[in-house]
Amino acid sequence: MISKEEVRHIAKLARLGLIDKEVEKFQKELSPVLDYIEKLKEADISGAEPTSHSVKVENITRGDKESDLRFDGDKLLNLSPAKKERHLKVKSVL
Amino acid sequence: MELKDLTISQTQEGLKKKEFSAVELTEYYLDEIEKKDRDICAFLTVVKDLALSQAEETDEKIAEDQDLDILSGIPCAIKDNILVDGIKCTAGSKILEKYVAPYNATVVKKLKENGAVILGKTNLDEFAMGSSTENSAFFITKNPNDLNRVPGGSSGGSAAAVAGEMCSFALGSDTGGSIRQPASFCGVVGLKPTYGAVSRYGLMAFASSLDQIGPLTKTIEDCKKVFSVIRGKDKMDSTSIELKEGNSDFEIKNLKIGVPKEYSVKGMDPEVEKVVREAIKKYEGMGAKIEEITLPHTEYALACYYIIAPSEASANLARYDGIKYGYSDLQGKDLLDVYLQSRENGFGAEVRRRIMLGTYTLSSGYYDAYYLRAQKVRTLIKRDFEKAFQKVDVIFTPVSPTPAFKIGEKIEDPLAMYLSDIFTVSVNLAGLPAVSLPVGDASGLPVGLQIIGKPFEEDKILSIGEIFKK
Fold first, then answer.
1. Does pTM top 0.90 for this prediction?
2. Which H or E run includes B371?
């Protein structure tokens, strides 16, 4: 069973706010799934390379030139909940 | 024949012969949505004006006697995690409740270029995470065959829109079964193409090594048409691949169908099993050779999937931070509070569970034990299929162990919900194409047969599916 401290730690890493009541809820809901995925420990993986993508793809690069793709910057900026002129506005970091 | 019963090519025949106009056809479907969707709840957004203006373009072409494009005038619906320029795109999440797409997904661009008429955006489990469409932040979609039951998920809105005869076809996305399982539950055709066959540009990323976009249609013939439009390489998605024109020729008497012995699981509905067995028998009766095959690592597939998919999701969903777009809670004192509170209040329960799960399996000290191990098991699962395909041409399995379950039945038990994907996740892990084909019913509820093919043999598995009805 995942501990309350672990739940809090993981939530913090994931940048998810948690109220105290939810710590126990996540503990109860995540534990059976974590137990279930333990099943993979039984598998014999000797000699198996990891697969990240099922279809082999090579890195695709382009020349260091201006792209012909045009995007309306203001259209994207206007999606932001808080902005000042042409900048995204955020609260203080510290 | 009524408009709703027409296939895409029959509809276009009707348009060309001026039996009805594209605007009339679109108005017919908009009326159907108006009448039926109060009960079914498949659509999150209906775009009447956009649809009618697209239909007018087709009518102008017909008036000027121009050739029609492959989908000219055909009304369709798009899952709400695929962007349509200028239209709201929510992913079924509160965090994107007011988000308006700033560009078209490549698949949407291709549909529009080929004349399709977009009627609206369909409901889904939040960020495509779920198997019942009950995880939508907005409302639950009902199965048109039985309104007390789920349509499956996560593309439940798209499947219900096609099954409920509120559009001619729909697009969905499939990360672990999200096109095939709802297609099976609703009784429509659903194709998950080979990984790389269709561009994901403009699809909201869930698990990038697994996600694919595909069609949900009334018939296999329609499915082939829609797939032929959306497939192909796109410079905006570096994982997309240009396909050779598929070789769909086969002779039924030379066809070898593999049936994996591992796919008879505990908890399998006996009626579903019977329907699938009978479908397989029918192919045998037509002359195909049925062979029992083994996919020995099947028992690890679901665990493997529930490490890889949440891990990738936890990284992909980091972008929803309350800063760039979407819901933002600005009440806190500093930047960290904005992150924490926007994500706490913006994401629903299942999405937060999966982000937690993925963060756990990727976190320091656990990466090797979980993510890396899962990637190695993924290799074993992929090899199982490669070996099987040396012996057989295609593999037949059920799509899901049960028919559509009741609303509320599994929502409190995440693991039970995950088990409804047991036959579909392996296909995503191996990157293969698979189609769900309606082949019968269990106590009046549709049952789908899954036909799995070798990479890039979509046309072949569709042609094999096509002969079922004949």
1. yes
2. none
pLDDT of B140 reads 98
Question: Tokens 């198996």 belong to which residue?
Answer: A48
Q: Measure the CA–CA gap between B156 and B144, rounded to whole angstroms.
A: 11
Q: How far apart are CA B110 and CA B198, in angstroms?
A: 11
Q: What's the CA gap between B141 and B80, in Å, rounded? A: 13
- ipTM summary value: 0.94
- Restricting to B residues 369-408, those with a Cβ less than 8 Å away from any Cβ of A are 369-370, 372-380, 382
Domains of chain A (ranges plus CATH)?
1-42 (1.10.20.60)
Q: Residue B399: inside a domain, yes or no? A: no
For residue range A55-85, what is the model confidence (pLDDT) as tens digits?
Answer: 877 788 888 988 777 778 888 999 999 999 8
What is the domain range of residue B71? 3-230
> Is the residue at B329 inside a domain?
no
Mutate to test the interface with B, among A4, A24, A33 (most CBs of B within 10 A): A33
Question: Are B380 and A45 inside 8 Å of each other by CB?
Answer: yes
> Is residue B42 in some structural domain?
yes
Distance CA A40, CA B149 (A): 33
Identify whether B154 is a catalytic site residue.
yes
- In this predicted structure, what is the pLDDT of residue B247? 66
- From the list A10, A50, A76, the residue facing B363 with the nearest CB is A10
Indicate which of A54, A55, A69 best probes the interface with B, i.e. most B CBs within 10 Å of its own CB. Answer: A54
Residue B377 to residue B359: CA distance in whole angstroms: 20
Predicted local distance difference test score (pLDDT) of residue B237: 94
Q: Which residues, given as ranges, of chain B have pLDDT below 70?
A: 245-247, 470
pLDDT over 80 (residue A92): yes
**Is residue B418 domain-resident?**
no
Q: What is the pLDDT of residues A33-49, one digit of tens each?
A: 999 999 999 999 999 99
Which pair of tokens denotes residue B44?
């999150």
Question: Among the options B79, B109, B142, B224, which is catalytic?
Answer: B79
| pLDDT at residue B413 in the model | 85
Instruction: Indicate the residue of A29, A38, A88 with minimum beta-carbon distance to B323.
Output: A88
